[in-house]
Amino acid sequence: AQSVTQLGSHVSVSEGALVLLRCNYSSSVPPYLFWYVQYPNQGLQLLLKYTTGATLVKGINGFEAEFKKSETSFHLTKPSAHMSDAAEYFCAVSYNNNDMRFGAGTRLTVKP
Amino acid sequence: GAGVSQSPRYKVAKRGQDVALRCDPISGHVSLFWYQQALGQGPEFLTYFQNEAQLDKSGLPSDRFFAERPEGSVSTLKIQRTQQEDSAVYLCASSSSWNRETQYFGPGTRLLVL
């Protein structure tokens, strides 16, 4: 069975500070990994994904994530937070293209 | 259309009432997914279609939930005899045959059962 754990349901950073949102997965086979962002009253928007190849993945809006197999992690980072980054972020794992499992989400607050 | 659309965006139902939620996927996308997102939680998988075939319905919580996609495009999620625990946001997503691992989500339908 596959599952996703997001450490920290709420993360607060100052504008301009580093953003680090943590995600660990459990999967019996090499997974596909995703980060989605959800703004209030909107659907999920794909930030980035890892399928195969380079383990450092760059996404939209300056976000990136690194797949670390030895740590079963796929943490999301951004060097400098912007006020517009405030949203809910979801990590997800899939290995058969059909069964995507999401974490519980991390709410990011950006302070001026 | 440019993206996945869902209607209605908001639905208030009285307990015991039947509801139908509609999803219009991205044109040409063969795969369609339904998820249920409870307040403060991540989306949970309900069911999956490839064209008109429902290949996985293991996530449907009870036999009150029924989904269809008769012509392989628009899909409807129907909930019969709604209960308060059905209150959630219902998300639809679609993916293409050449990029199956990437799902594109609609804005969701927020269902409130009173």
User: How big a fraction of the residues of chain A is strand?
Assistant: over 45%
Shape of chain B: globular
Largest sheet of chain A: 6 strands, mixed
Q: Can you give the helix content of chain A as a percent range? A: under 10%
Oligomeric assembly: heterodimer
The overall pLDDT of chain A, averaged over residues, is: 91
Low-confidence segments of chain A, ≥5 residues, pLDDT <50? Answer: none
Rg of chain B is 13 Å
What structural class do you assign from the helix and strand content of chain B? Answer: mainly beta
Provide mean pLDDT of chain B, rounded. 93
Q: What is the number of beta strands of chain A?
A: 11
Major sheet of chain B: 7 strands, mixed
The number of distinct β-strands of chain B equals: 11
Strand content of chain B: over 45%
Helix count from the secondary structure assignment of chain B: 0
State the helix count of chain A.
0
Order of secondary-structure elements of chain B: EEEEEEEEEEE
Q: What Rg of chain A do the Cα atoms give?
A: 13 Å
Residue windows where pLDDT falls under 50 for at least 5 positions of chain B: none
Cα(first) to Cα(last) distance of chain A is 41 Å
